[in-house]
Specification:
This protein is about 35% helix and about 20% strand. It has about 220 residues and is of the alpha/beta class. Helix 5 runs parallel beside helix 6 and helix 6 packs parallel to helix 8. The relative contact order is 0.17. The site of zinc ion (ZN) has 6 residues, from strand 2.
Length: about 220
């Protein structure tokens, strides 16, 4: 499976987002990862719809929107119409999972579901055939720059082997504490969409850092 690098702009210089997006495009990353936090589902507030619209105008890159918000079904339409290419929401966030997947698809967008480190991966098996991607969080959602939780590797391996056994081709995304070293581990576990924020935006050479994540 092709490795896709998704750059989380949570760690970008947000006062200079346009240059940061240009830097991201030139780095060779495929996706821009856009983290939405509502201060309820997670203990932090990031940015939302108006900023997504600006990002959409500033870049043609694939916009991978990660919703860390309560009852995400309430805002799918707005995020879809504001430029998201894929919308990923948490199964723990209080919306009906199947209905929310259908809602995302009704706008012609790719659909993903996410689980926190404490949620058993077996809870998402029943949706694996209905989504484009499953995000296995490798830190507690809410903040950039945290350390990778090694116990999440077992969940990635279990999900990949479940999908293989059922003949399901699925993108498995990881998010949190991803750098060159943890990238190699999670790729071996079966993840193929790698989100990185602080590792990429704090790197002296972002293109070299993206390359290191694939090696
Ligand atoms: C955390 C966010 C991540 C965050 C990752 O809740 O979902 O996307 O930006 O940051 P790093 O790569 O610094 O761990
Ligand atoms: Zn994220």
């Amino acid at each position: 499976m092709k490795t896709i690098v998704s750059a989380s702009i949570l760690s970008a210089d947000l006062c200079d987002l346009r240059s940061e997006l240009i830097r991201t495009e030139k780095s060779g990353a495929e996706y821009v990862h856009f983290d939405v936090m509502d201060g309820v589902f997670v203990n932090n507030i990031s940015y939302g719809i108006p900023v997504l619209k600006c990002v959409r105008k500033a870049t043609d890159m694939f916009l991978d929107v990660h919703l860390m918000i309560t009852e995400p079904h309430r805002y799918i339409k707005e995020f879809a119409e504001s430029g998201a290419d894929m919308i990923t929401f948490h199964t723990e966030a209080g919306s009906d999972v199947s209905d929310t997947i259908k809602l995302i698809r009704s706008f012609g967008k790719k659909a993903g579901i996410a689980i926190k480190p404490g949620t058993p991966v077996s809870e998402v098996y029943k949706f694996a055939g209905d989504v484009d991607m499953i995000l296995v969080m490798t830190v507690e959602p809410g903040f950039g720059g945290q350390g990778f939780i090694p116990e999440t590797e077992e969940k990635i391996r279990a999900l990949r082997s479940f999908c293989d056994s059922k003949g399901i081709e699925l993108d498995i995304q990881v998010d949190g504490g991803i750098n060159a070293e943890t990238s190699r581990r999670v790729r071996e576990d079966g993840a193929n969409v790698l989100v990185a924020g602080s590792y990429l935006f704090k790197a002296p050479d972002m293109a070299a850092a993206v390359k290191a994540m694939r090696e």
